[in-house]
Specification:
alpha/beta; Rossmann fold; six-stranded mixed sheet; globular; binds 3,4-dihydroxybenzoic acid
Length: about 400
């Protein structure tokens, strides 16, 4: 009798534990944040992780009555690792959302898993136009290179530049930038010479020598975030800073993470992009101040704002679905609009890509620090590659 009572008591406790286990699993919404935290693109990981954590610190870790758990994983910038980590996070950790993705190959690798498992993939960094077409579960809060680049071509044509050399990292976003610039600038009568440099361990000097010899009006450069300082060093070593050849491009090369340490060589560079730490708005001032305070004075760059807005999209999406993930969450994200530190943004319901202002900026010294100072705004720019396809 006693034994039976004991056994049933044990059984009841086990059942209760199992039940509360289920309840606990339902109460927690896990976000798998996969980033390059080591290797040449670690600055992207560092910026996005800091921004995601800041967002959670500011908004709390409960949404729609569920606890939000952020699981950060380092893919070292290697696509096979990204894919394996995504698989483990989906199968073992039962994540509701995966996010991050510091480079184009890293965003593409888990796309089939997102589709198969119906897990939304929020791309916070990678910026090749086609990425959102790799899965209907991909939503992007970064930008696309054509989106940032077409305004650069327009500015170049309007400001009397006739001959431009392009120098891009030889992979998805670089090729996107090269094509977008070349098409838009030649359509306005400009002349272009295209040069491509390997993504891994780039040696810019032979290309810069070619540019020095060809003497174009401007050099248009795309290198991914984190590489701009290496480029600038070789730009000076080849004497291009004194050649009168203007430096232009999408804003990745004068990335806020590195800009302040580049020195006077960067002064006067004209770039087009969606984010500057110097952006003049109340939202951005509060963001920059809080980000610096939480990260030993580190200045947020465009990767950080992609991470911060990605968390916002996930939080607001979960509020709408009452904590549900899957297709409902992707649907909730479509068409969402808000005021980001970068300015007004929305998610295009057709393409799941971000629509945002692109700013024309010039590197200037302000209060002793180098900034990309915005001086013109092109409002509500869609990714032009996908916009052209839908016409
Ligand atoms: C990509 C990576 C970057 O660091 C960047 O600045 C732009 C694009 C990419 O791989 O998609």
């Amino acid at each position: 009798m006693l034994r039976r009572t004991l056994l049933s008591a044990v059984g009841a406790t086990a059942a209760m534990l199992a039940l509360s286990g289920v309840a606990m699993a339902q109460e927690t919404v896990k976000i798998g944040l996969i980033l390059p935290m080591t290797g040449p693109f670690a600055s992207t990981g560092r910026q996005i992780e800091a921004a995601a954590k800041l967002y959670m610190q500011q908004k709390g870790d409960t949404v729609a009555g569920k606890k939000i758990q952020l699981i950060v994983k380092d893919d070292t910038g290697t696509a096979d690792v990204t894919k394996r980590l995504a698989q483990e996070l989906i199968v073992n950790d039962k994540i509701a959302v995966m996010a991050g993705f510091g480079l184009t190959p890293l965003a593409l690798a888990p796309a089939p898993l997102a589709t198969q498992a119906k897990v939304p993939e929020v791309v916070m960094a990678a910026a090749t136009s086609t990425i959102t077409e790799a899965s209907p579960f991909i939503v992007r809060t970064s930008f696309t290179l054509p989106q940032a680049t077409v305004p650069m071509a327009d500015w170049a044509a309007q400001n009397g530049l006739k001959k431009v050399a392009t120098l891009v990292s030889d992979y998805g976003p670089g090729i996107d930038a090269e094509k977008a610039f070349t098409a838009a600038f030649t359509a306005k009568g400009g002349q272009v010479e295209n040069l491509r440099v390997p993504l891994a361990n780039p040696d810019f000097s032979p290309f810069l020598q070619k540019v020095a010899d060809a003497k174009p009006d401007a050099l248009f450069v795309f290198v991914p975030s984190g590489i701009g300082a290496q480029f600038m060093k070789q730009f000076v070593e080849r004497g291009l800073d004194k050649s009168g050849i203007k430096l232009i491009g999408p804003g990745d090369v004068t990335d806020d993470d590195l800009l302040n340490n580049m020195g006077d060589v960067a002064l006067g560079a004209i770039t087009t992009q969606h984010y500057s730490a110097d952006h003049d708005s109340a939202e951005n001032k509060a963001f920059v101040e809080a980000f610096k305070k939480a990260n030993n004075g580190m200045r947020p760059n465009f990767m950080a704002v992609g991470g911060y807005d990605g968390m916002h999209l996930i939080y607001e999406g979960l509020k709408k679905t009452n904590g549900e993930g899957g297709q409902a969450l992707v649907d909730a994200m479509k068409g969402m609009s808000w005021t980001s530190p970068r300015g007004p943004v929305s998610i295009d319901p057709q393409t799941r890509d971000i629509v945002q202002n692109i700013y024309v900026r010039k590197v200037e010294r302000k209060n002793g620090e180098l900034y990309n100072v915005e001086f013109a705004t092109i409002p509500n720019v869609k990714d032009p590659v996908k916009a052209a396809k839908s016409n």
